[in-house]
Each structure stands twice: as structure tokens, then as C-alpha cells.
Amino acid sequence: MSLHSGYKGPGDCPAIIPVFPLPGALLLPRGQMPLNIFEPRYLAMVEDALRTERIIGMIQPDAEGGGPPMAPRLYKVGCAGRITQYAETGDGRLLISLTGIARFRIESELAGATAYRRCQVSYDDFSTDFEPRAGEEAVDREGVLKALRDFVEVNDLKVDWGGIEEAPNEALVNALCMMSPFGVREKQAMLEAVDLKTRAEVLIAVTEMELVRGNGSEPTLQ
Q: What homologous superfamily does CATH list for 10-130?
């Protein structure tokens, strides 16, 4: 299912959206994120979204920002996605897929009314997100591929090199960022990168730092 053709600029997206706080979950424009929804408040969120514009904002909680466990403070920047796939399971869960539209900045959080969280947001700082493949020519593709090769070799991973070689720069960089095994701060830095070129540079830098660190974890790229 393709994105609604009306999302051509910041003014086309709703200013008030439900938000789904999820650490380590990075959605980027035109990226695909599968989600398994089972908590009652998020089941209600999805059902309400399906009745309206099908938009949900993915955002990370800020672990150092404080707040109660059920409502931690959020980073200020997230990414809005539209529900483009939806299925019910026999045990009450919902399986959905979000397709990223554009990043947003939280202006305020709305109180009450729903069990899930809703925010008033602005997309004005991220107008280029509405332009597919914007800035691709500036990406250091070879640098991205080298970092990936080194990471794959060190961690003994298997990847689809054919698909990677064929992917345009935007799809390559955003997919690698979304699937990367790095932490919340690193994911947030990738999300908030000013443009695709900078996001690629952050990805390369984080990957190189991880290789230097040489920790004993076993990250996976799917």
C-alpha cells in the first residue's frame, strides 16, 4: 500500500497525533516498521488511528529525562508514520506496519482524554523529509558500505549484499540506521541528523566507535 499522496509538506500532516514511546525503535521517512501491539492502551491507539488518518508518531523515551515509569519524558523529535498494513491475531494482538512520513518536533503534550499519549507537534523543521531521495548525491556511499562490511565481518553476520548494492542511497542509509543494534542515544542522533548526508556520517561514526569498543555483545542486522 502506498502512502497517501496528500503528504507533500508540513501543512499536510495532522498537528495532534498519538505517540508510541518505544526505546530503540527508529522510524525514518519512507522506512517500514512492523509492530506487534498487545497492550490495551496501544490497541486503543491503533484502533483510533485506523478510524482517522492512520498516523502514529514513533518516539523514544528519554531515560535520563525523568518522569513516572508509565509516562517517561520523551525526546523532542520523533517520526510520524502511517499504518499501511494491519492484521488481527487470534489472541487479541494487532500486527501493523508503519511507513514513515516525516519527522516532527513535540510542542506540547495533551493531558487526559485517552489512555495513550497525544502530542501537538510541528513538522516545520523537517520539510525536506517530504522529498523522496533528497540529498542522496551527497552521501558517502563507499564509507557507509565499508563500515557495514567491517561490522559484518567482526560480528560474523549474513546480509543480502545484492539487495544492498541495488538500494538507492536514501533507502540504504535509512534501512541500516533503523535496523542497527545501537543504543537509544545513537538512534536519536541518527534521527535528528539534519540531512541524509549527516545521517550517513553519524551511522559511519557510531559503527566505527562500536568496532573500536569491541564489546562482547552479539548484535544482528536483519
A: LON domain-like (2.30.130.40)
